[in-house]
Every structure is written in structure tokens, then in C-alpha cells.
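ok so i was messing around last nite and threw this chain in just to see what happens. nothing serious, just curious
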Amino acid sequence: MSASAMIDQWYPVGLVSQLDEVGKDTVLMGTAIHVSKAVDGLACVTRSEGRSLPVLERFGHVWTSLGTPPEDLFALSEADQPGRRLVDVGVVRVRCSPLRAVENFLDIAHFPFVHTDILGAEPHTEVAKYEVEIREKEDEVWATKVSFYQPQAAKSAEGGITTEYMYRVPAPTCSVLYKTCPARPGEWDVICLFVQPISEDLCDVWPWMALYDDETSMTDLIHFQQMIFVQDRSILENQIPARLPLDPGKEIPTRADMTSVAYRRWLKRHDYTYGAQLVAQ
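result:
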């Protein structure tokens, strides 16, 4: 089993708000680690043998790495904008490849069938033409000019609207969704998926949001997003093969799969293959 280049990436392993001196045990890429609060109040992450690992506190989460990660995590300016609600959704364990979890988040076509009468509904099933690119300067996957009719685009939405989207993949197991903000037209709500690889076919998914919504309670915001992801979990846990195929001949893409195709090509380019299936079977 090779962790490939992904061993040098940052991964979420807990919520900053839940840190304490006792801490918790968890697993990252098959390695047992311990997450706790140090004497100075900052996060501390160690391997089972006691060796310290690099640590960052970003976007409400504790991040660490088993290798030699970049000095900092990717930027997300919305996290610092005044007036936004920063929502720590919690964690959902999913029996799937960490790469599958990200790819599912990028999929628009499943909205009417998995999130019926919330993020989509029949007969509004067509995925309109949109644009996808791998931005070389940022080294990120982006999908723009995405639009889809949604009966309830957000907890604060009243009635159906055509929702505009942008998708961004800044790291192999992280995805950022920018979407129409019902409460503040002209702004974007931001929903992130940060994935902690437990093994190549098991992961913890940490959703996080930066929203303009002064009306909805924090509990309702969290429950709404948890409901959406739990609906996805049954789909993710039954995908075959369990690992994400990077061979273009394994699955036949449609126009709705353009972002997935770019994501897989980007993964393969960088040898981000932990949780991937490299050869068609």
C-alpha cells in the first residue's frame, strides 16, 4: 500500500472547539495518532510512539500530516469576512475511499435523485453546460458557471430557486462549494468538505460552512447539512469499485461528469493515489 504524494498533505483530525487536555485517539492513513490541547492552549498531535506531528488550526479544525506538508493550508478568504456564520458541522464516518467522498461532493447530477425536493427534483434533472479547468497557477480544479434548480437550496431558502455554483478542489481530499446566497444576493455561501483518510476505503468527513444567515439557529444549520450528507452516505458506501478509478477506460463519463474527469486527471498527475484504483479491473 502506497500513500504516494498524499502523505505530505494536511488533513483534518478534529474540531478546535472540542480540544481538551485529555484529547482523543484517531487514525490518519492507517497510523494511530492522538489529538489534544497543549499547555499553551494550542493543538498538539502525536503518533502512538509519542513523536510530534506538524499542526495547524484552520477553519475551525485541527490539521496535521504524516509527512512534510506545505507551510500553510490553502487560502479561504470567506473565513475572515465579517458577518458570516462559521459553522462546524461535526463529523460523519463513511465506508468509502476518501477520494470517492470528494468526487461525490462534486457531482451535480445526483441532486434530484438523492436529495429529492431539497437540492433537486424531477423533472428538473438536466445539467446545463458549465466550465471546468485545472488552474495551473493555483494548481486547483475549478468548475464555474454551474446552475441547477433547487426546491430548497439552503436552510434559509423560501421556495425553489435556480442556484448558481462554483466548485473548487484545492487539495486531494478537500472541496469547496460556492453557491447562491438566498439571504444576500450577490454574495456566495461557502460549504466545504474536509476529508480525513482513515484507510484507503474508510474516511471521516468534516463538513464546514461560512454562511450569510442571521435567521436560522446554529442547531438547524448543522442538522440541515448533516441530513444532506447522511443522504449521500448510502450512495457512497455502495459504489463499485470502492476505490476511485483513475483509469479513464473504467467508467464512461457524461457532460455532468466533467468536474470528476478533471479531478481524476489532476489526482493522477500529482500521484495522489491513496484511495484510488490505478488499473481497470
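not much to say yet. The longest strand covers residues 188-199.
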